[in-house]
Amino acid sequence: MSNTNYSFFGAVEKSFDKAAGYTKWDKGLLNQIRACNAVYQMRFPIKRDDGSIEVIEAYRVQHSHHKTPCKGGIRFAAEVNQDEVMALAALMTYKCTIVDVPFGGAKGGIKIDPKKYSPFELEKITRRYTSELIKKKFIGPGTDVPAPDYGTGEREMSWIMDTYSAMHPGEIDAAGCVTGKPISQGGVRGRREATGLGVFFGLREVCNMPDVMGKLGLTTGVEGKKVIVQGLGNVGYHSAKFFQDAGSKIIALAEYEGAIWSDKGLDVDQVFQHRKKTGSILNFPGANNFAKSSDALEMECDILIPAALENVIDGENAPRVKAKIIGEAANGPLTPEADEVFTQKGILVVPDMYLNAGGVTVSYFEWLKNLSHVRYGRLEKRFTENLNTRILSQMEELSGKKVSDNERELIMHGPDEVDLVYSGLEETMINATREIMKTWREIPEIPDMRTAAYVVAINKVATAYAELGIFP
Ligand code: NAD
């Protein structure tokens, strides 16, 4: 974002316009969809620990009110600016609509480097920001529901909820004003691994499509597929782990200090522990070091998953990438120039806009949990187990045969919260993948899956507007 001529929001508008050309919607309606509905720019003072006063710049953007509440993370970063927050809010609208999360897109940002502030200062900033949002009704379980993003996590979400609750005494749904909270504050089980699991479910569905795999010269299924993951953070670690558990071979892992590979496959947990112990991913027993970390992106593989940063593959290194499928787990890991190269080379790019939507999907489940005031599975778990026990014993009695202890446990198990969250996410990612691919098959002129995803998003938001009768 250092280039002042570059507009991130402008780039999102460009992708939108490209995709809109494959839809039938009226120009005025399309203009309404792509515009940011509300931008709140604020300045407020805080007293630093040394007694000095600092004026803080912050934003909350609600891109679309076609569904409410609005939803999107809050970022703490020195580079935050209005254009970036607007672009990220717009992407949230499209992301939510593709995965059928009934929210409009939003995003928040505070222009600070959180590493330069004490926890006490961060708490004051977060609570003051929340108060400013409350004053303008830019937060609330029915209006706008923030979540974590860069530089924020469960701790900040707790401060936000506490501030909101304190200023809304007696509001029974107050916990639904923010998601990404710790479990003890109304968070939901399965949220932490949700994005990585969503990446896995989305890519697995792509791999289960015989026509798509046929075009790429691959067999169907993820079993035995050679996978490379960049970034062993929250998203990368869990993506790699779920692929490994499903029988894929993790042949290379990259971190910022270096990358390693092994034809035999790497054990993700062991590599994670090795990095924790030695402070580096390099010199993992039985594996080879790459000369430099980015070399891992260029190794031959079936699926490459960039899960670290934006713009890691550009026009320069894209021609050397040998993966058949690229799963964008990170936000914006490919530049538009890299996209062009992959379209020409017939490499399938599964776009970030929906592939990393696991986090927001499970945030939606958290919000539903907060509004219903009951843990998922609490009411039905025991009932289901009793019923399954009866069905099983009847079947055993009638057949005269007994199932193994292991099978018995699996059949009888009633759903816990995490089981329901996982299965809700699985259903969501499968449906989203199928819908995007269906649109692409129906309009073969669409050049890539990213544009197909935008077309799906535009059609859904436009239908919602049209059926609302907002444009008589
Ligand atoms: P994270 O900070 O937990 O992990 C990022 C990892 O990438 C770190 O381990 C870091 O050391 C590593 N890394 C940094 N530079 C690197 C480099 N040059 N080469 C290799 N590795 C490098 O962050 P995260 O939450 O896992 O997010 C990763 C990406 O996924 C971001 O783009 C984020 O916007 C996106 N994303 C995250 C979520 C979520 O729920 N966490 C949801 C949607 C999208």
Kindly describe this structure.
The protein has 472 residues and is of the alpha/beta class. It folds into three domains: 39-185, Rossmann fold; 194-355, NAD(P)-binding Rossmann-like Domain (Rossmann fold); 376-468, no CATH class. It has helices spanning 8-20, 27-34, 82-98, 119-135, 154-167, 194-207, 210-216, 234-245, 268-278, 336-345, 352-355, 358-372, 381-399, 405-412, 417-442, 449-468; strands at 38-47, 53-62, 70-76, 104-110, 144-148, 226-230, 249-255, 258-261, 288-289, 303-306, 325-327, 348-350. It has a seven-stranded mixed β-sheet. Helix 1 (8-20) packs across helix 16 (449-468), helix 6 packs across helix 8 and helix 6 (194-207) crosses helix 15. The longest helix is centred in the last third of the chain and has 26 residues, at 417-442. The radius of gyration is 23 Å and the shape is globular. It starts with 7 loop residues before the first helix and ends with a helix. The model has no long low-confidence stretch (mean pLDDT 96). The structure holds nicotinamide-adenine-dinucleotide (NAD). Nicotinamide-adenine-dinucleotide is lined by residues 195, 230-236, 254-256, 293, 307-309, 329-331, 356, 359.
How many H/I helices?
16
Can you name the CATH architecture of the largest domain?
3-Layer(aba) Sandwich
Percent of residues in helices: 40-55%
Overall average pLDDT:
96
Order of SSEs, N→C? HHEEEHEHEHHHEHEEHEEEHEHHHHHH
Overall radius of gyration: 23 Å
Bound molecules: nicotinamide-adenine-dinucleotide
Question: What is the CATH C-level name of the largest domain?
Answer: Alpha Beta
